[in-house]
Amino acid sequence: MLNEWNEFQDYTGVVNYTARNKQDTTYLGRFTFDTILDFEGLNRVLTILARGFLFHNEDGSPAEAPRERIDYAKRGLCAWCSVPDSKKATPREAWQFGNDFGKLHGEFPGLVDENGSGWFYRHVHQVVDFVRENPERVSSSAQKKCAAIEKGFDRAWRDKVIQMQIPLFAPTTKGQWGLRFDSFLAQALELGPLRDKEQSLPPELVKQLRTLTPKGVPLDMVTTLVSYYLANKPEDSDWVVLPVANFDAYFGTTSFGRKYLKQIPEAILERSETGFGLCRYRLREYLFVTHEET
Predict the structure, then answer these.
(1) What's the pLDDT score for residue 198?
(2) Residue 234: how many CA atoms within 13 Å on its side-chain side?
(3) Are residues 154 and 177 in the same domain?
(4) Treating both helix axes as pointing N-terminal to C-terminal, what angle do 203-212 and 219-232 enclose, rounded to 10 degrees?
(5) What is the rounded distance in angstroms from the CA atom of residue 176 to the CA atom of residue 157?
(6) Is 256 strand, coil or helix?
């Protein structure tokens, strides 16, 4: 969550489909079942991808003229999101938005194959394959969720990919369609290049956080939240948007959002309720001052 270039690579590279035991969700990569089934946290994922396409070359070095790469970045998003057409699908008219971007395989060979299977689509199906082939190493909950994926993911993702291409002010646009390629590109241009370094906290602040953190709450979750806040705090506000669903994936457990986040005391941070995989939070002022003075 702090090294955004590494995050970009996790969303585009090879996933280790393995699990040591039923609590290990390494096979999900940087995703949760909530992201796959309900698309929670996908806004951040696609914005990270857009920033990578706009501001960086394949080796991570800075790209020249990011604003001239907008069309390239949009094609990259389409390739990553691509879904093969259904065998029963009616051929689309030329003016209709599509979901199969196999034609972009030559430009983005790692993001979409010749059959139109994009990176995310392939990843989801490889998760299902792993769970089906290793029932002794995954939870019963994971098996049930994979059954739901097999039943409805392909159709839902095709619909979502088409929705993401519809312009904001199109007559058919619905308010709840919050995911759009144009929005990700706009956010990416505002946020700029991906960070490629971790941010460490002063030892005094870590010691203070250790004292304030309740027993049973992992300290690394608290220190990561504080580091993320300091790295993302805007100049005109004390509040930072917390992508809870993405933090769940980062920590490899939904216990972060469903259990531990609620236990972090107000002596450390103030936050709003979580909705759609997001909330906002701010550090208590004396913690922020402690960091600034160090």
Answers:
(1) 81
(2) 10
(3) yes
(4) 130
(5) 15
(6) helix
CB 161 within 8 A of CB 83: yes
Q: How far is CA 269 from the centre of its chain?
A: 23
Q: Are 253 and 22 in contact (CB under 8 A)?
A: no
Domain assignment of residue 197, yes or no: no
Residue 198: inside a domain, yes or no?
Answer: no
pLDDT at residue 293 is higher than 50: no
Q: Bridge-partner residues for 271, per DSSP?
A: 281
14 assigned to some structural domain: yes
CA distance 199 to 209: 16
- Smallest CA-to-CA distance from 133 within 252, 18, 34 is with 18
Which residues fall within 8 angstroms of residue 48, CB to CB, at 6 or more apart? 4, 7, 8, 11, 194
Counted domains in the chain:
2
The residue-averaged pLDDT of 150-175 equals 82
Which residues form the domain of 38? 4-191
